[in-house]
Amino acid sequence: MGTSGELLGRFIAPPHKAKHLLVGIRKLVYVALRQDWIEIDPTAAVEWRPAYAGWKAWPRDAMAQFETRWPLGSAPRTG
Fold first, then answer.
1. DSSP per residue over 24-54, as a string?
2. Given a cut of 60, is residue 69 above it in pLDDT?
3. Is residue 7 packed enough to be buried (19+ CB in 10 Å), middle (13-18) or exposed (0-12)?
4. Which of 57, 64, 51, 44 lies closest to 9 in space, CA to CA?
């Protein structure tokens, strides 16, 4: 069986899936610790912070398609 990092690495795209998986595993581990099913938290040393490149600007053709599909005043253009 692989490490927790290897398991999370399978869900790297999109990165929030790996974080959600880690949160779920930690909830299960918490219950197991409280019920004395296990003695140590195997996820204690696992951190998951995916690389963040920030928001990227849309290419001009993508912006044109969006503006054509959603006119001014529509919900996607006002949000």
1. HHHHHHHHHHHTTS-SS-TTTT---------
2. yes
3. middle
4. 51
Query: Interior CA angle at 76 toward 70 and 77, to 5°?
Result: 70
Q: Which residue carries 């963040």 as its tokens?
A: 52
Tokens of 62: 């993508």
Q: What share of the chain is helix, strand, coil (3-state, %, to 5)?
A: 50, 0, 50
How many CA atoms, within 13 angstroms, populate the side-chain half-sphere of residue 49?
2
What confidence tens digit (pLDDT) does each residue in 10-60 have?
666 666 777 888 889 999 999 999 999 999 999 888 877 766 677 888 999
pLDDT category of residue 1 using cuts at 50, 70 and 90 = very low
Cα dihedral 30, 33, 39, 40 in deg (nearest 10): 10
